[in-house]
Amino acid sequence: MFDWLVVGAGFAGSVLAERIASQRDERVLVIDKRPHVGGNAYDRYDEAGILIHQYGPHIFHTNSEAIFDYLSQFTRWRPYEHRVLAEVDGMLAPIPINLTTVNRLFGLALDSEGLARWLAERAEPRAEIRTSEDVVVSAIGRELYEKFFKGYTRKQWGVDPSELDKSVTARVPTRTNTDDRYFTDAYQYMPQHGYTRLFERMLAHPNIKVMLQTDFEEARKEIAFRRLIYTGPIDEFFDFRFGKLPYRSLQFRHATLDQSWLQPVAVVNYPQTQAYTRITEYKHLTGQRHEKTSITYEFPSDVGDPYYPVPRAENMALYKKYERLALVQPDVWFVGRLATYRYYNMDQVVGQALATFRRICQDIPVKKTPGLRPPVAAK
């Protein structure tokens, strides 16, 4: 008999398993259908000995000191500020769009004030901002929208930006200075020895048992447990009672090149050309030194494992039907991107899991004296 069954060994499930095991001294079984822990953040050494991210680049960034300190128990960190270039009109330019981007593409010599005026002249104000197209066109005009956002978004999501919720493109700001960092969070780091090692440390508690390549439907019939934490697709949990929720998937093509470097930054986007959306070169992320370099091409797809909930009004309405069922499930907690049908960054998933643990402790008092686990690594 386990006190808890946790479905999914990604951030949501692993954080909750660790907290329950270490702070409540209760027995936890973590299962995952994949042959590894870490969910989509899983990384591994390829045949060349280069550390790659199996499911595309995962960049840790947060403004939360509490989340950073929590994860610091399980890893040391490598400082890393993420930079992205987009190939536009045959040139590489920073994305998010900034002063350098506009000056380079249009052969200008604007300063910050000049760029603000230049963008304002091209902006097409909207009475109401509803879609991803509205967000961009109302802020920077149609020309930059066409160059950077329209083609990339259509590849990424399979629909036009005018058919997507405003949240998709609102995540990418426009800057009037030369700051070319993709993120501006206070804490920007990569796990020094990779994400997989972080997860292995997180789950290395005597109260936690991990079973991989394990199907939830089979496990729930064979294994005795008192309470359940579910991080998989919420529609699948309810046997698609109201129909399937749309998700966008990704296909990855990994390659190792017989050269030291391919590109000047970790990620280059391709909004105008190519079938893939971007190329990632991992040595930029990890700081690893190697005579060769390993890269990944990303191809968005409607087929494959669910990665991104598709943010459209009709999809959220469908999710709400499943959410109403979830809210009345006894002793079941739904946590994470797939279980709550929302796009979260890694730190947001960790924050959601920690908040869920606090609610669990409020609802279910601890009956035993918790065995507190000391930090296993310094910051």
Automatic annotation (TrEMBL):
Cofactor(s) annotated in UniProt: FAD
**Pfam families of this UniProt entry?**
GLF (PF03275), NAD_binding_8 (PF13450)
Q: Which GO terms describe its cellular component?
A: cytosol
UniProt entry keywords in alphabetical sequence? FAD, Flavoprotein, Isomerase
Q: Which InterPro entries has this protein been placed in?
A: UDP-GALP_mutase (IPR004379), UDP-GalPyranose_mutase_C (IPR015899)
Please give one Gene Ontology molecular function term for this protein: UDP-galactopyranose mutase activity
* Xref: Gene3D superfamilies: NAD(P)-binding Rossmann-like Domain
The UDP-galactopyranose mutase C-terminal domain extends over: 147-343
Q: Does the keyword Isomerase apply?
A: yes
Instruction: Give start-end of the signal peptide.
Output: none
Similarity annotation = Belongs to the UDP-galactopyranose/dTDP-fucopyranose mutase family.
Q: What is this protein called?
A: UDP-galactopyranose mutase
The protein's organism comes out as Methylocystis echinoides
